[in-house]
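Please go through this protein, sequence plus structure tokens, and consider how the sequence yields the tokens. Keep your notes short.
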Amino acid sequence: MGAHAPSWYAASLPGALNRVREPLSGDTACDVCIVGAGFAGVSAAYHLSKAGQRVILLDAERVGWGASGRNGGQLHPGFRQDLQWFAETIGETFAVQIRDAGEAALNHIDALIDESSIPCDRTHGLITACRKTKDLDEEVAYNTYAHERFGVEPAQVLDAAETQTALGTGGHVGAIRDSQGGHIHPLAFVTALAEAAEKGGATIHDGTQVTGLDASDLRVEVQTNRGTVRAQHVVLTGNGYMRGLHKDSDARVLPITNFIVATKPIGAWADGGILPHGDAASDTRFVVRYWRPTPDGRLLFGGGEKFSKAFPNDIEAFVRPHLAEVYPDLADVEIDHAWGGTLAITQNRLPLIRRLAPRVTVAAGFSGQGVINAPFAGKIVADALSHDPALLDLMERLPCPTFPGGTTLRGPILFLAMSYFALMDRIG
């Protein structure tokens, strides 16, 4: 336990939020023990403490150390599967409920920012850029479908020239701009929300590695390297860092690594430059690339994934070809920060939010869309444990199949599949 993992986020974190909390010291008890101090865990602690529950939140490192403090910071409304998929796969009534949940998730993160005065640079505007006409046609068709069938506010359609102006680069046939999406400083958000949870009565321990769970019908014992926590319920929110705690979540949640660079200040977010209106952006590749400006004029750019815990020897060199393809003029730009992190995906990219046992609940596998959905998942779990299980019941209907090959072979199998899709991205 020590400093945050190196990143532009850690370097720019407001000093008042950059503090280390004491590890657990000996055995203790509470109502709810939460494992993993990222978006979902901190949000659950915040809402449970407001509901009067005695909460202990544990993290092996520190608040926001994992994916929650290292991601692209992009606010993507909804899930990785769209409303048409839900309507055709589960039913139109369920799709309406998911639409409402998605709107509630977006409202929830904005409400948290407002009510706790969180300094996280909340910015509106999310562009989905299309290099192929087929991709743009599909985006436009779905935009129309979601509006006409489900009353979703239509996004703005940009032609090639408008897209070039909005992105500050060419090479795209058009784009969709969602004014409700956007971006935040994710590490500032999660650390400030943790402080709000503590003010509400939650106890947070950094540097406390959970080594096992013993759950019965009466209570749960959470074993750690610093002592044991006896609780009425345990909530697993460690995402890509909780392998070995529960076999059911292990079978459905797969850790992967993703990588980001931050350029030197280049005037991004300035008139006539890159992303002049401050939008976040991503593309329609299967192995998606994503980027956004920072308030000090840098470009944060994420690209490339690995299906192992090992990081590339040179993260900058790993990401730079992706950056250069989107912004050829930046092929040789100076990079000030390069970092990676471990997130978690599920087989169908829908999150795993459900009861694993009567006293064990999980919220994980947000598959790249956790900035909005993970904090809301924390609220869903908190509501279920305190007064209202309706949304947790809804989330339990999300299909989340196990990966083929079990925990031993799922990584190699997925690597082969993802290599194929990456090849398709390259050859179009």
About this structure: The first strand starts at residue 28 and ends at 35. The two ends are 44 Å apart (CA to CA).
